[in-house]
Amino acid sequence: VTADDVKRAAALREGQLQAAAGARRAGIARKTPAFTGDIEKDFQGAEVVRFQKADDAAVRVAAAWDDASLHLGWEVKDPTPWTNGAAEPAQMYLGGDTVDFQIGTDPKADPNRGEAVLGDLRLSIGNFRGAPTAVIYRKVATEKRPKTFTSGVVKEYVMEHVAVVEGARIQVKAQASSYVVEASIPLAALGLKPAAGRALRGDFGATHGDAAGQRTRLRTFWGNQHTGIVDDAVFELQMEPKLWGELLLRE
What we know:
The chain has about 250 residues and is mainly beta. It has 3 helices and 15 strands.
């Protein structure tokens, strides 16, 4: 069995998982939650989605919106909870435990797009040197804050905008084998204009690190099942909107 055989087998498995996942849909309620570390209580009335690749890495997520912010809550099982060894915020997705949200803010964008376009973004939240920190990545952006990422396969992959989110409110509750992250992200930072009845493409996810809390070893997402690759800074960063689910904004 060669290395190429292993890659082909992994690709076949991910394709089967994507087919089995089918079309994912979730509702996002209009609500301003209080953060207590209990997402069922805090996001009462909102839909809680569940997904996992392993019993000890199960994830539950809920979301809500109001006129000022998008509110997100993750409950993540993890034997070494909320550890991340990244040297800079933009590398947290590589460095261990993070929670993740991806969305296309342009309702007119092609839902079957294979590459991120203007309005698509990835939000990654992790523990950067003891502080919960949120970073936004945009492959295509009008405001340029570019950063180049490199891997063994792709030498130069440019994100046109990478920045720590200013004004984010993030609360973390870590326990022995799990953690909860609740975050309010200003709509202005996302470029999001929510309206009841609007449907947008998006995805929820989490990354799990190794026992030392230095490197991501498992990526699990609600919609995108093409997440088996690790040890590649570019493939782990790329967005694939056609594999996202549908998020319906409700009153």
